[in-house]
Amino acid sequence: MVKRRQFIGGLTALAGSYLLSACGGGGSEDASASSSSAKALAAPTAKKAAAASASGTAMPPAASITDSSGDVWTLVNGVIYRNGRTVGNTYDVSLVLWYGGKIWHCGTGGQFYVNADVEGEWRPSSDPRIAVAPVAGSFYGMNGHYDYTYTPAEIVSMLKAMNCTSYRVGVTDDPRQLNAVVKLAQAFQAAGLTLVVLIDQGVYGAGGSVMGSESAAYNQGFSIGSTVANALKGYGVTIYECGNELTRQDATVVDFTYAGTKASDFNNANWPIMRGVMRGMIDGVKSAQASAKCGINFCVADVGASDALWDGMQPDGSGGYPTVRWDITTWHNYEVYGDLFNIGTDGAGPGFDLATYCKARYGVPFIVTEWNAGPERSQSYRANYISDRLAAFYDARKTHNIQSVMYYVLDSGNDTYGIMINGKPLSEPYNAFTSYTSSHADN
Question: Residue 221: which of 273, 186, 180 has the closest Cα?
């Protein structure tokens, strides 16, 4: 977590403006030029319009769609054009849709695709307009640590007082850590609360260097995954998050200020190590507890990473590698990263609805496993932020398949992130949190 904390600290001076470099947003023309006659049919003008079409605009019946970059999209004889030029290898397209800040299309066979805005790529998805609701009962969540001085019973009491039904805690295969989390799991099982266990294995080996091969990383991930799941499977734990911010390590991201919307934002040489340890943790958990649900964690706007892992791609664009398939998409959404439902692709450019994108792309529930304002914010600012974010998350929970949103953190030892210190609530953020949870049922 240290690197992400440094990342936040470096960006908060920009007053929430996420100034990125080398992450182009929408609006560039694709290399695959069409013939002069096709251009004439495709677009009445190549000049960019000023105002975007309303979200949900479909073509047909619309004659064209304008995206938030001002690009004009048209559909002629089943082929899609942007500003008069073809976009990738499309054909037999029956519908083009502007929704959630992205362009989608559906072919005559009924398969939806979303435009990745990377060299005209179209990635398979479901219809993003379909509302999906997760199983209710664990929506309000909280983060904590295995080495708190609080007893498990005290943590249960604190969470119930805040109307929280889920709690996330990290652990390795170290016996001291595992024993502490086992005790938590026992208390949570008795109280009917959900314990989400983060398996905290990274891409580095015992000596601090990046592991030497994908197979070595897989074996390490498998070992820790199976050890943790074997220790906890008898105590009601069913959700394991396999790795913490692995796409945001020195070894895995090219530059911490990149948005993550392109696969090329990530380190191609070390990508197999990250992929291997993720696959290993998932397989290790499943070997011990076949019915368990495994999540993979991302940050900022890292759909470039999530798509590449899901599709078995490398950051250099090559494919055919092992895929990483998770049961739950998990994301960190701190204030400096941007609004989850309108997150920027280049910091200054137009945003997109990341939760809608993930719902349609991966078809699994979504958990925000960490969220908060920056550490420098006042308590009154944090309280307002809590109220605003909870309202946004809550309103989207049954349409965007959001299973849980987990505030970071129960106690940080100071007033930078924690909602209490040494068992005493920090009144403004605590009251904002409990006021909302007590008046909005988790159902």
Answer: 273
Could you tell me if 150 and 71 lie in one domain? no
pTM of the model: 0.90
**pLDDT value of residue 39:** 29
Question: Above 70 in pLDDT, residue 409?
Answer: yes
CB 78, CB 92: distance < 8 Å:
yes
Distance (Å, whole) CA 396 – CA 365 = 13
Q: What is the mean pLDDT of residues 333-359?
A: 89
Domain residue limits at 153: 2-15+132-439
Measured distance CA(171)–CA(181) in Å, rounded: 7
Closest among 111, 113, 118, 41 to 76, alpha carbons compared: 41
Q: How far apart are CA 129 and CA 124, in angstroms?
A: 15
Q: Which residue has the tokens 């800040």?
A: 101
Count: domains in the chain: 2
